[in-house]
Amino acid sequence: MIPVKGHALLKDGRRIILTLYRPEDKEALVSMYANMSPEALKWGLPPYDRARIEYWNSDLTNNITLIARLEERIVGHLRLFRIPFERRKGVGEVLIYVHQDFQNLGLGTRMMRKAIELAKEQGFHRIGLTVVADNHSAIKVYEKVGFKKEGIARETFYGDDHRYHDEVEMGILL
Ligand SMILES: CC(C)(COP(=O)(O)OP(=O)(O)OC[C@H]1O[C@@H](n2cnc3c(N)ncnc32)[C@H](O)[C@@H]1OP(=O)(O)O)[C@@H](O)C(=O)NCCC(=O)NCCS
């Protein structure tokens, strides 16, 4: 049985299921990343290949991994990684990717809200992330769900445009 964690009703009327990732979801997740456009991934840190996905999902016990499903297809992926040091107790790092056919329909916001809810239930104290300063839609989503800008790392991201871009450190205290 799929452990359903909620639904997302997209702005175009489609209904997406949110669930926790299970090992049998791997191929669908590999397929989602394989089908993401260069434009959708331009502010990311490739490669998004099978090895990366296996690495992300090698420890499902300490982390929260959410997927968004439309029938057999995975269309969104969120990983909240619990940093394993005692001096980082309750501190997590999040990453999120929504397939380009499903962006700007409210899914990313819904997934972040669900992750924050689960993180609170599981005793997280803080979630942090790093985002390229030009990734405006991502920053919009993070601010909407309560993240604050905490600082700028200057010219840490070398883009497809062969230029360096600043990155923004963001965080939310739960
Ligand atoms: C960032 C991402 C997860 C957001 O998911 P999403 O499902 O598109 O997000 P939502 O639809 O919930 O919200 C997007 C918001 O950004 C806004 N937006 C879109 N383009 C924008 C722009 N150029 N400038 C400012 N806001 C913008 C939308 O209007 C929307 O806000 P609203 O709902 O208040 O109108 C998704 O775009 C994505 O996967 N991008 C590629 C991977 C990535 O960059 N991940 C983050 C790495 S840190």
Give the arrangement of secondary structure elements.
Blueprint: E1 4-9, E2 15-20, H1 26-34, H2 50-56, E3 64-70, E4 73-82, E5 91-98, H3 107-121, E6 126-132, H4 136-144, E7 148-158, E8 164-173
Coenzyme A binds at residues 40, 43-44, 96-98, 103-109, 131, 135-138, 140-141.
Please explain how this structure is put together:
With 174 residues, this protein is α+β, with helices and mostly antiparallel strands. The chain has a single domain (4-128), classed as 3-Layer(aba) Sandwich (Aminopeptidase), CATH 3.40.630.30. It is 23% helix and 37% strand. It has four helices and eight strands, in the order ββααβββαβαββ. The chain has helices spanning 26-34, 50-56, 107-121, 136-144; strands spanning 4-9, 15-20, 64-70, 73-82, 91-98, 126-132, 148-158, 164-173. Strands 1-2-3-4-5-6-8-7 form an eight-stranded mixed β-sheet, with helices on both faces. Strand 5, helix 3 and strand 6 (126-132) form a beta-alpha-beta unit. The radius of gyration is 16 Å and the shape is globular. The protein starts with a strand and ends with a strand. The mean pLDDT is 96. The chain binds coenzyme A. Coenzyme A (COA) binds at residues 40, 43-44, 96-98, 103-109, 131, 135-138, 140-141.
